[in-house]
Amino acid sequence: MSLLKIAQIGHPILRQTARALATEEILSPDIQSFIDDMVETMRDANGAGLAANQVYNPIQVCVVEVEDNPRYPYKPRIPLEVLINPMITVLSEEVFENFEGCLSVPNIRGRVRRNAEIQMDYIDREGTPHQKIVRGITAGTYQHEVDHLAGKVFLDHVFDSTSLCTWQEFERHYRDEFVKEAEAVVAKYGS
Ligand code: ZN
Hints:
Elements: H1 23-26, H2 29-44, E1 49-51, E2 61-66, E3 78-90, E4 95-102, E5 105-115, E6 117-123, E7 129-135, H3 136-149, H4 167-189
Antiparallel strand pairs: 1-2, 2-3, 3-6, 4-5, 6-7
């Protein structure tokens, strides 16, 4: 396994729409070892997720995992998941506010609105299709990653530019208030 370089905002690959994979491709040794590298790269960077075009490969693959994450201590846990050709269906009008950051947008966080209840359709690394309903903060994490595969970044959803801040200023000025909001979202949606 090896660590992959992470594209930074401004690189055109982050604005490219990723292409879907056929099942035979998913099972190929190349894609399987690429997935291993993505997981290793996400963990090394303390990311909650990573999309393939963030590592210069515009294919429809993203990985998500939240354990005890120093970047996002309030996020509910998500066991490691590999999502291939993911599709999101919004299940309700409800939205919540999230304070997001991104490994491709160094040292900036900002407030975005995310759908609170979504259905995810995707294929796993063995080529098996899955469907599941995801709510709350965890739903926001999936929306962030699937956005990458459509060439979007969280900055596109920031509705109030005065919320933009560095990680240090987030800790100083916004963290306490936001942790309470995040806890309320988790209490309401269970994740
Ligand atoms: Zn990101």
